[in-house]
Amino acid sequence: MSKALVFIAAVLFTTVTVSQDLLECVDPDIRHGLFAQRTFDSSSVVTQSLPPAFANLEIPGGLELIAGAVADSHSAVAFRTGLEPTAARDAAIASLSRAGWESEQTLLQVGPFVLADRPVQAILCNESDRVLVRIADRNDTVYVTLTQLEVRRNAPCNIDSRESINSQMQMAMRLEQYMPTLTFPEGARDADSDSTTGLGSRGHIGGQSVGDEEMTRISGIAIEASPTDLADYLNGQMTDQGWLIDSSWSGELSAGSVWLLRPDADTRLTGMLDLTALSESTYRVGFRIISLN
Q1: Do 201 and 284 touch, CB atoms closer than 8 A?
Q2: What is the pTM of this model?
Q3: Which residue among 91, 117, 131, 279 sits deepest, i.e. has the most Cβ atoms within 10 Å of its Cβ?
Q4: Per-residue pLDDT, 258
Q5: CATH 3.40.1000 domain span(s) along the chain
Q6: Residue 114: burial class (beta carbons within 10 Å; 0-12, 13-18, 19+)
């Protein structure tokens, strides 16, 4: 056991606030299991017991408890396991289900971009509470992190299927079905989870935004490739999925293309794929889909 973990164990069932200096030498399991989550940092409180939000949780078979963390408005607990990522996710979901949680249908995606190392995720709901199940494979170890999500309003489970859903979410659900699926070449990594990409002050790259008639998804991709070669690789997949190219461009630091899709007589869509190099091996990759109806 490392010195950092011994230090935490010495105050078992008490809390420890982790300083930034300690984060540099903290046990790798805690760093990968808890602090890889962007909502937890050096100001979070770490314990070696289950946080109150997960006090009734039965630890899934095959999973070893690492630690828990509590921030201002949410908490998390992390495990490590020798199971495969999908099996680890299923074990966590089964344990939560026994505790009264149910799977929720949501727009939980970081896509449309597909990476082999991207964490496997799921959301479960219990009345108005949500928990995010996140599985990540780091350095040949699979980490399972359960994060209590902050819910800004008393939203019932599976709200996506209810009439109370807001207009922007309705638009997102409508556009979601037309989002292409784009797979990157072998060796591409999730820049937001890769400690070697050197994002510095940029922090987290990926995200999603939804407007009245459009939706944009962005990912950070770590890969050794030129903008032109990477764009060509993705453009071929767009064509295979029925999109028609309208225009394209490429340069030293960026590349992209504009596409058209007419899935039926009543639906007209345009999509823009853009890639921007943030460093020699890190890209910001975005896809924006717009309804032309």
Answers
A1: no
A2: 0.57
A3: 131
A4: 97
A5: 166-291
A6: middle
Over the stretch 143-190, which tens digit does the pLDDT of each residue have? 888 988 765 555 667 655 444 445 556 666 678 788 888 888 888 887
* Residue given tokens 């924006």 in the structure block: 288
75-81 vs 63-70, strand pairing mode? antiparallel
Q: Which residues of 7-19 are buried (b: 16+ CB within 10 A; e: fewer)?
A: ebeeeeeeebebe
Closest CA to 289 of 236, 228, 212: 212
**What is the CATH topology of the domain spanning 166-291?**
Protein Transport Mog1p; Chain A (3.40.1000)
Beta bridge partners of 98: none
241 closest CA partner among 263, 256, 267, 217: 263
DSSP 8-state symbol, 14: S
